[in-house]
Design a protein that fits this description.
By secondary structure, this protein is of the alpha/beta class. The protein has seven helices and ten strands. Helix 5 links the parallel strand 5 and strand 6. The longest helix is centred in the first third of the chain and has 24 residues.
């Protein structure tokens, strides 16, 4: 609570010549932590020896992260029109993402959530491509979707083992019964995306040269 109050004070004050944009990004770091903590409390702990089935609550957590990821990534030009958030597979994550972004903007742009039901070229309309795991198509179909998405201007996000090794940029994982994420900076550079150092600091693991982050 103290940090949230401090964040509000930062927004009201422009002392010391610090730019407002830097203060906003600092505030978003705090906001991500607050939102994620609240959603994780709603989802409850993950138990059992076997890999848990993904739930609607878990996807609400991931959807909140995905929306905030977009605030810490810079896309290559041209950047215009609606921001396309695409989901391959899993109707559950599609619905959760729709709820999270409803009525919100990304850098003044409206957000459109689209579900890709089959492997197709996402480069025309997707800035973000979330490739869901589990029953979201076969492993071969997910790999094909990643291959199509691993191009300039597409932020690929997954939730499966080996996703980063296959060229994905951000991968969700469970760590200490909490949803965390890891980042592949080499893949981000290949896609001509710049990831803020603020987001890198929140990642459970960062692969590649951290100095290349913004």
């Amino acid at each position: 609570m103290g940090r949230t109050i401090a964040c509000r004070k930062l927004r009201r004050s422009e002392a010391g010549g610090i730019r407002r944009e830097y203060r906003r990004k600092e505030c978003w770091v705090i906001l991500i932590a607050v939102v994620a903590a609240w959603l994780l409390a709603e989802a409850g702990p993950v138990t059992g020896a076997e890999p848990p089935a993904r739930t609607a609550s878990e996807y609400q957590v991931k959807a909140a992260f995905v929306y905030n990821f977009a605030k810490f990534v810079e896309w290559p030009p041209p950047v215009d029109g609606p921001a396309g958030f695409c989901v391959f597979g899993e109707a559950t994550v599609f619905s959760a993402l729709e709820q999270v972004v409803r009525g919100k903007l990304i850098a003044g742009r409206t957000v459109e959530v689209k579900r890709l039901k089959q492997v197709e070229d996402p480069r025309r309309e997707c800035q973000i491509l979330f490739i869901a795991g589990g029953d979201a198509g076969s492993a071969q179909e997910r790999a094909a979707a990643l291959a199509e998405g691993s191009s300039a201007g597409v932020l690929t996000i997954g939730e499966s083992d080996g996703f980063l090794e296959s060229g994905g940029i951000i991968n969700f994982l469970l760590k200490d019964k909490k949803v965390r994420f890891e980042i592949n900076l080499a893949a981000a550079r290949k896609a001509r995306l710049t990831i803020s150092s603020k987001l890198l600091q929140l990642a459970a693991d960062v692969r590649g040269d951290a100095e290349s982050g913004k």
